[in-house]
Amino acid sequence: MEESLSNDGRLFAHQKLYCEGALKPFFRGHIHYFIIFSGILILAFIELVKSAKTPTTKLFAVLFMLSFIVCYTISTIYHNCEHDKETEIFIQKLDHVAISFAMYFTVVPLSLLLPRLYQTILLVFMTGFLLLNLYNIFKSPSNIIYELGIIGMGVLFLPILYSYMTSFEWESAMTIVLFGVITGFMFFLELDVPFVSPEIFGYHELAHLLLGISHVFGFFMVRSIFLRINDV
Question: What CA dihedral angle connects 146, 148, 151 and 156, to 10 degrees?
């Protein structure tokens, strides 16, 4: 069984799909569903574009919000709808493509705070990890290290960014990193949520919730940066 799983093109070689009976707790995908259909992302889109004062920041604002709208939409379809095997494998890959772009466009606005040399280094390495990850997603089995490398480059530059960020932006960035580390451990260890049946609300749902909160911090961090930038 393991050999057949690893050779059929799925993103994670030995992970069962929903169509094969993988556990899908009651709340799986509901957070994405609520965020998409509540209109929160549309309101955030309008607010972020209004906050951007230059052509560059307006472009980054549009790309930032589009990446999250696409990410939440694909995740909603992936987790809430039933698919045949080939379709589920493809949508799961698209889900991770969207996640990669959401991470990328969360870090890109931070580069606007840096001197040209540091800005170039950050964008070159981050873009490299993004391209490697996109290639790797469609090469089975996937290696999650490239996906982590996208956001990891932003983390590596935080000591340099510290002197260019406001206290609010820095605290928001630290919150994003903290929640990212917590959710990473949750996915790696697959820890059950205490006092709640995993058939109702499992570690995956808690990770989605924490990541959703971190996305709020990311939005306000990026908005704060755009409000301060007037010359790019």
Answer: -90
| Cα 155 versus chain centre, distance | 14
- Do 63 and 109 touch, CB atoms closer than 8 A? no
In tens, the pLDDT along 190-217 reads 778 888 888 899 888 999 999 999 999 9
The CA distances from residue 212 to 53, 161, 164, 186, in Å, are 26, 24, 26, 15
- Model pLDDT, residue 129: 92
Q: What is the pTM of this model?
A: 0.89
Parent domain of 54: 2-228
* Number of domains observed in the structure of the chain: 1
Check: CB of residue 220 under 8 Å from CB of residue 109: no
Backbone angles phi, psi at 156, to 5 degrees: -60, -30
